Amino acid sequence: MKSTTLVRSVARLLWPVAITAGLVSISHAAESVPESSDARGPYVGIGLGVSKLGPRNNAHEGVHGAPPVAAKLYGGYQLTDTWGVEAGLVQLGRVHKDLTASDGSGLRHSGDARSTYIAGTGRMALGSGFSLTGKLGMSFGQVQGKDSADSQYTLGGHKASPLLGIGAEYKVNRNVALTLNLDGYGKVSENVKASAATLGMRYSF
């Protein structure tokens, strides 16, 4: 419920941001973005998409998220036209796992998965406002578990893992860019690993 509430809140926040960005892009339609424009400086961004929480097994009783939603808030600093640093908070959604006890009864473990991260970023301009992006850093994951009577297994916990991400962006104008990101957060607890695909918007100051 907490993750769904957060995603709804982010979605409500995203609509006015999108409208504002649209108005800004229209007002700057005549302003082209030079291929060599200096992108250095601070930025903030927001993303909304889907997460994948695993692993799964062949019996389809593995760890999974329902619904698989992801919401991301982040900020960073572009050190050069190519390299930068970034930190963010990602809500990865609810996760649960169904198990069968020795007496045949069903057991359900559940929790809310999230990650905070810090990473170095890279950007390669393709021309016409498009760029490929990537990030490499560390994810500090957490699953707030709600365990059943089974004390031998838990989804909850903390885990630090390598973070790897790739993506693309389209620069609408000097300040606003539309983004697509595919990020792997590794294990966010001992029994849960996570990745996410998000669409969003970044504002550079």
Overview of this protein structure:
This protein is mainly β. Helices cover 13% and strands 61% of the residues. The protein contains 1 helix and 9 strands, in the order αβββββββββ. It has one helix at residues 2-27; strands at residues 41-54, 64-65, 69-78, 83-100, 106-127, 130-146, 157-171, 176-189, 192-204. Strands 1-3-4-5-6-7-8-9 form an 8-stranded antiparallel barrel. A hairpin with a 4-residue loop joins β3 and β4. The longest helix has 26 residues, at 2-27. It is elongated, with a radius of gyration of 19 Å.
What labels would you give this structure?
61% strand; eight-stranded antiparallel β-barrel; 205 residues; 9 strands; mainly beta; elongated
Summary, kept brief:
By secondary structure, the protein is mainly β. The protein has 1 helix and 9 strands, in the order αβββββββββ.
